[in-house]
What does this fold into?
Amino acid sequence: MAMTGVLRPGHAQLRVLDLEEGVRHYRDVLGMVETGRDEQGRVYLKCWDERDHNSVILREADSAGIDFFAFKVLDEATLDQLEGDLQAYGLGTERIPAGELLETGERVRFTIPSGHQIELYAKKTQVGNGLQVLNPAPWTPASEKGIAPVRLDHCLLYGPNVAEVKKLFCEVLGFYLVERVLGPEGEGEAAIWLSCSHKVHDIAFVEHPEPGKLHHLSFLLESWEEVLRAGDILSMNKVPIDIGPTRHGITRGCTIYAWDPSGNRFETFMGGYQPYPDYEPTTWTFEGLGAGGGLDYPQRKLHETFLTVVT
Amino acid sequence: MQHQVTIEETGEQYRCGEQESLLVAMARSGRRGIPVGCRGGGCGVCKVEVTGGAFEKRVMSREHVSADDLACDRVLACRVFPRGDVSLKVLGGMHKAVCTSAGLRPGLQTKQKLNGGV
It folds into this structure.
């Protein structure tokens, strides 16, 4: 598979109600590496195996939620091309100067019909994963601290106009539909899982009347054993868990969902499968979401908090 | 030190320590009445109006609790810690949790199944 265009999720800026409480959670419990703080007081973190400087930025604010979610693109020519494509599609874009986020190049920011701010960028300082690039060891002390996910994997956002969002991501940004859930009467798509890669999701959306909402940020683990260990670590630290450990029928991911100290939901998960753009998308009916095990395969039921609580 | 919490609509009562929130104590003691959400002051579903009793509170989302709300003791139960016996009314969160809409929210029929165990 040729990896061009939009490469992967790059960073998310989260609003937290208490900065240091947020840092303790993401750094000490989740086990991310703190890589910097800027003049605005924002704190930058990365997962141990990520090479770029940051993937999660925490900003203290008077409400919880997500400020923006960004994708890294192949190079600056790709960034210019996609910026032009977005404008030609009819979307307004804004250039955020290099350095506005630490160690990060120019970003192209735009608001999508679900009310979320999405960014594209081509450059971010590669600080490495703590392993040498020549004859490296398989892991480092940072990979053994806290839950220690390997990367920020994807996010699920709640907002209106999911059909328009899908069109934009697929027709302009080169994503493809991997799975979907139909509405309660079989109409439309109530939820979509989109990929720009070989992953079951790089971003997902659920139809929701309030714009710009965060359902969760997701962090990848490498084994089911590590997901169970994440459950232990969350409980030891009295982190409130929403659902899991369990497996989704949708994407086949094995998962735990919990809330950070400001109520932003996050996921620690492993598994899924490796789709290609030519695969026929998997469809779930609304019944399939609950009784069919789409949401929770072992329990085959809906979880009200999971479906309704967002920040 | 433990204090008594009373949910006015239902008369439900439970004990709550000074180091635990009104919401967590309710869930721990197996009581119901206040919708349980993120437990971090962010999502707003556990909004209540404290109608009597002393309490301390921690920071909570301004999106769900305005300055006016704060002045009138309309707060998120997950961020409220009793300093005396407390009585409260449950506000809009419950309605939000059961409302039907496009998207994946359980509809009323599904809610009945959830509650009735059908």
About this structure: Chain B has one domain: 2-116. Chain B is about 25% helix and 25% strand. The two ends of chain B are 41 Å apart (CA to CA).
